[in-house]
Structure formats: C-alpha cells, structure tokens
Amino acid sequence: MNKTLDLYYYDSCPYCQKVLRAISKLGIQDKITLKNILQSQEAAQTLVSVGGKRQVPCLFIDGVPLYESDDIVAWLNHAFA
Fold it and tell me: What's 58's domain CATH number?
C-alpha cells in the first residue's frame, strides 16, 4: 500500500476507538499517521479546512477524506486484510 493515510481522531470518541481497534487488529499502526484534533490545533484546522467539517473519525487517503467509522473500517479491511 503506497497511499498516505492520516487518521484524525480524539481519544474519548467511541467511533474513533472502533477505528483504532481495527487498526490494531490489522497490525497496521505503522502505516497510518494519527492526528489527535484535541491535542493539535494544526490537525483540527486541517480537518476543517480540507475535510470541510470537524467530524471524527476521518481517514484522509492521499488527502481525500473518508468519514464514518464503519466505512473507514470497511476500507481498511479491504485494503489490508
């Protein structure tokens, strides 16, 4: 997989935790850059400016946002399973 993957999230979000569990289960932690929007003002600004909304989890795939935890997990399972 030669795509740039950035996951915008925050720890207390249950939908984010669902995606993080899938990442862990697939063993792909080293392939995805995690960007916590509550710890990084820059990440929060990028999420809104590029994605158009402050919704997490959001997986940027080569700069294109993918929202909804179920859709993100399905994409990850297809790409890495």
Answer: 3.40.30.10
Structural domain span for residue 68: 5-80
Number of independent structural domains in the chain: 1
Q: In the predicted model, what is the mean pLDDT of the chain?
A: 96
Q: Do 3 and 32 contact (CB within 8 A), yes or no?
A: no
CA distance 40 to 3: 23
Q: What residues have CB less than 8 Å from 64, skipping those under 6 apart?
A: none
Q: Classify the C-alpha dihedral 67-79-11-41 as positive or negative.
A: negative
pTM, full prediction: 0.95
Distance of CA 8 to the CA centre of its chain: 5
